[in-house]
Structure to design on (227 residues):
């Protein structure tokens, strides 16, 4: 089966750095996405890795190691508005089609 | 225009009703998706349409019936639902569903309550 694990909850302080980890065991891996979701709102795309290494986008960076089935999302200079759920999602390619499967999400609370 | 628009935003229906959720995108995307999300849970894939053809059905009960009238529109027809079907229904689109899908763009969702 497909399995995606990430911590349920994390807390951090405004201005700090936080790392949210994600491990996966899947077949047909074809990329890993990170989405942010505020309560009651749609998920919004943050970052994407298909090859090993680090991708940086402003305050957000994401890392992937395909051999270890491991990714992390790094958030720098945390702001209160970063309090949200962060969803790790694996893109699986099977039968000629892609589908995106989400992990349970990590609820991040940023405190002053 | 990078929006996926869903209507209605809220829907309350009885178990004997027939209703539809609608989704529209004008980004020229050729893949469209329905996800279901319960409170404090991740989105769960229901259906994938690729070039207006149903390509993935994740064993969804037949009381949910998707339809893709054209490349910009995606509907989800609802009939004889159960209270446990109450959830946020998210529509998404991507460039295609082949090897280089790109990211999914999500709509704001339709919050469904089944009484």
């Amino acid at each position: 089966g497909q399995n995606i694990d990430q911590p349920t909850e994390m807390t951090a302080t405004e201005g700090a750095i936080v790392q949210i980890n994600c491990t996966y065991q899947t077949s047909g891996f074809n990329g890993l996405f990170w989405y942010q979701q505020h309560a009651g709102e749609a998920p919004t795309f943050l970052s994407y890795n298909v090859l090993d290494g680090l991708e940086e986008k402003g305050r957000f960076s994401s890392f992937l190691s395909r051999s270890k089935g491991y990714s992390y999302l790094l958030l720098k200079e945390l702001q209160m508005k970063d309090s949200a759920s962060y969803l790790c999602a694996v893109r699986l390619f099977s039968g000629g089609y892609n589908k995106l499967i989400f992990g349970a999400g990590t609820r991040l609370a940023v405190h002053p | 225009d990078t929006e996926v628009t869903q209507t209605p935003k809220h829907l309350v229906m009885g178990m004997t009703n027939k209703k539809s959720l609608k989704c529209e995108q004008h980004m020229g995307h050729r893949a469209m998706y329905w996800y279901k999300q319960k409170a404090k849970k991740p989105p769960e894939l229901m259906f994938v349409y690729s070039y207006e053809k149903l390509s993935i059905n994740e064993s969804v009960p037949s009381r949910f019936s998707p339809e893709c009238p054209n490349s910009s529109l995606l509907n989800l027809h609802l009939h004889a639902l159960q209270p446990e079907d109450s959830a946020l229904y998210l529509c998404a689109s991507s460039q295609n569903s082949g090897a280089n899908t790109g990211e999914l763009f999500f709509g704001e969702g339709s919050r469904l309550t089944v009484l």
